[in-house]
Amino acid sequence: MIKITNLHARVSSDEGPREILRGLNLEIQPGKVHAIMGPNGSGKSTLSYVLAGREGYEVTEGSVTMDGKDLLDLEPEERAAAGVFLAFQYPVEIPGVNMSTFLKTSLNAIRKQRGKPEMDALALLKLMKAKCKELGISEEMMKRAVNAGFSGGEKKRNEILQMALLEPKFCILDETDSGLDIDALKVVADGVNRLRSPERSFLIITHYQRLLDYIKPDIVHVLAHGQIVRTGGPELALELEEQGYKDFIEAVA
Amino acid sequence: MVKALKALAPDHLPTPKQEEWKYTNLARVLPEALLRQKPETVREVVIHRSRGQNGGQVEDVLWTGFEGAHQQPVLRVTVEEGADLTLIERHVGQGAYWKNMVTDIAVGKNARVHHIRLQEDSPEAVQTNLVKVTVAQDAAYDCFSLNLGGKLTRHEIHAVIEGQGADCRLNGLNLLAGVQHGDTTILIEHLAPHCTSYQFYRSILDDTARGVFQGKVHVHQAAQKTDAYQLSNALLLSPMAEMDTKPELEIYADDVKCSHGATTGPLDEEPLFYLRSRGLSAAEARRLLVQAFVDEVLEKIPDEDTREEARGKADAWLTMRLR
Q1: What is the CA radius of gyration of chain A?
Q2: Band of pLDDT at residue B2, cut at 50, 70 and 90
Q3: Are B280 and A109 an interchain contact pair (Cβ–Cβ within 8 Å)?
Q4: Is B143 helix (H, G, I), strand (E, B) or coil?
Q5: Inter-chain contact B277–A52, Cβ cutoff 8 Å?
Q6: Taking CB atoms and an 8 Å cutoff, what residues of chain B touch A113?
Q7: ipTM of the complex model
Q8: Are B230 and B247 in contact (CB under 8 A)?
Q9: Which helix (H) or strand (E) holds A224?
């Protein structure tokens, strides 16, 4: 179970540190899909970076635990090994590092931390081929540099591929729908749906309801001014789609 | 030509007051004793490939420096029409010495020269190397320089593209640490139309090492349809390292494509975080990114064996620096 309690976090900026998260509380049970929706600037991406452990995002108060274990104390790579996976809003291009080297290094780094033996090249190749096939990703992608020159859809599919390979317990999808056309969105959503399991929790961060047509959430939260201001079922997303975030922005301001 | 050798005689050392020596102070690094030292007898290596000799021949030349020596080696290469040559040049040595070298390469019509320099001079050595290359019609000159050694090195290339349809590619990797100073200075003169030139240099600088990249492309009025490209990327592993970059374009023709770019800085935080979020330790992530930085330029070495040799040397350096 993921438990976020009274989370306060600030981000360093040119004008000094700015408080973005202001006492956020959230619990996600295993197997559940939670969606966080909110207007721009409400703290959605900050939350995803804080959970993944990015530098420059400082937690000033509160806690985050996964199965009772403190996450905030861990380095980003230790969180990854513990089972946290962040699908980036803007996956980073890494020219010069080819996909298969990257996936091999990543998977073996995580296996090593989890106390499992490293996978040999052949077994890895087989696994990658199988996952590519499952997710409808061209194997040709393996020969290219990580995200370099990838289309928006390819980048997001690549995130889902990594998610499938690394077998996380807690997946955070940060605005995965941004920059995707409807076909790419379906492919990505389909990939996520295949990964749903009774042990795996999801946190889907999104501005629009559209993605939630394809990945059905169990619970929907509204984030505004760094706090969860409302929680409901899937119908809440539809309500937001109709009425917008106006009420929430005004309520707190 | 050999005249340049005289211009570098001890009493006439260039100083940073001269624009093209602005970032490299030879007098400050050259030991007084070496300056006063009478040069050794000139060692001259002459390589000649006759017309049509294109069997992929490899020439491997070793230049060795010795403690206290003031050397003025000369390398002359002539590759006649339609011939080809792979020239591997190795620089090694022990102790403090000054290797003040002149290289003269003439690439004839439709001829090809692959020139690979593996520079591993001793940590106390000074090397100044003035390379003059002429590239004739439809000919290709391709140079890759791996600079690892020396206290101060200057690799100065003056390439003159004389005939139509010629191609000149200059690439290099500088791996410098400690108090090393590595200077790459290039002048490419485009005299003829429909020619291409390409410069791609990468440097990794650690400790207080200093890199210099000065690259000038001079497109003469007759050289229409010139396609010239230049890029220098420097990665600083230490806040005390320094890179001085001076790209220059001087263009007198009106129908050309010329571009240049330069970057200097530490490793980007974004890819580091991306890799760590995928389970790589900070050290593993850094190594992978630096390795990629190096691999992208090593790929420019056309000859596979030499490429692997250069990669091995670069790997050893990285392993030592990124411990």
Answers
A1: 18
A2: very low
A3: yes
A4: strand
A5: yes
A6: 279
A7: 0.95
A8: yes
A9: strand A219-224
Q: Is the predicted pLDDT of residue B36 greater than 90, yes or no? A: no
A80–B276: do the CB atoms touch at under 8 Å?
A: yes
Write the CB contacts of B125 (distance below 8 Å, at least 6 apart in sequence). Answer: B65, B93, B95, B96, B97, B98, B99, B149, B150, B151, B153
Contacts with B, A 141-200, CB within 8 Å = 145, 162, 166
Q: Where are the alpha helices (DSSP H) in chain A?
A: 44-52, 76-82, 99-113, 121-135, 152-166, 182-195, 210-214, 235-243, 246-252
CATH code of the domain covering residue A47: 3.40.50.300
Cβ pair A218, A32 in contact under 8 A: yes
- Contact between A20 and A11 under an 8 Å Cβ cutoff? The reply is yes
Tally of domains within chain A: 1
Name the closest residue on chain A to residue B283, using Cα atoms.
Answer: A77
| Residue A97 to residue B281, Cβ atoms within 8 A | no
Report yes or no on A201 lying in a domain. yes
Burial A225-250 (b: 16+ CB within 10 A, else e): bbbbbbeeebebbeebeeeebeebbe
Q: Is residue A36 part of a domain?
A: yes
For the stretch A27-78, pLDDT in tens is 999 999 999 998 888 899 999 999 999 999 999 999 999 999 999 999 999 9
- As a whole number, the mean pLDDT across chain B is 94
CB-based contact, B292 to chain A, within 8 Å = yes
| Residues spanned by the domain of A59 | 2-98+167-252
> In this complex, is the C-beta atom of B271 within 8 Å of any C-beta atom belonging to chain A?
yes
Paired sense of beta strands B74-79 and B44-49, if any: parallel
Provide the number of CB pairs (under 8 Å) joining chain A to chain B: 77
Task: Identify whether A107 is part of a domain.
Answer: no
User: Which contacts of B307-313 are long-range, i.e. CB under 8 A and separated by 24 or more positions?
Assistant: B309/B118, B310/B116, B310/B118, B310/B144, B310/B146, B310/B173, B313/B118, B313/B120, B313/B146, B313/B148
Asked if residue A68 belongs to a domain, the reply is yes
- Inter-chain residue contact A55 with B292, CB threshold 8 Å: no
Q: Which of B274, B292, B295 sits opposite A88 (nearest CB)?
A: B274
Contact at CB, A92 and B282, closer than 8 angstroms: no
Closest CA to B297 of B193, B207, B203: B203
Tokens for B150, please give them: 């020396």
Judge whether B97 and B69 are in contact, CB under 8 Å.
Answer: yes
Please give, rounded to a whole number of angstroms, the shortest distance from the CA of A91 to a CA of chain B. 8
Interface test with A, best of B272, B273, B284, B290 (most A CBs within 10 A): B273
> Minimal Cα–Cα distance from B284 to chain A, Å?
9
Phi, psi angle pair for B28, to nearest 5°: -75, -25
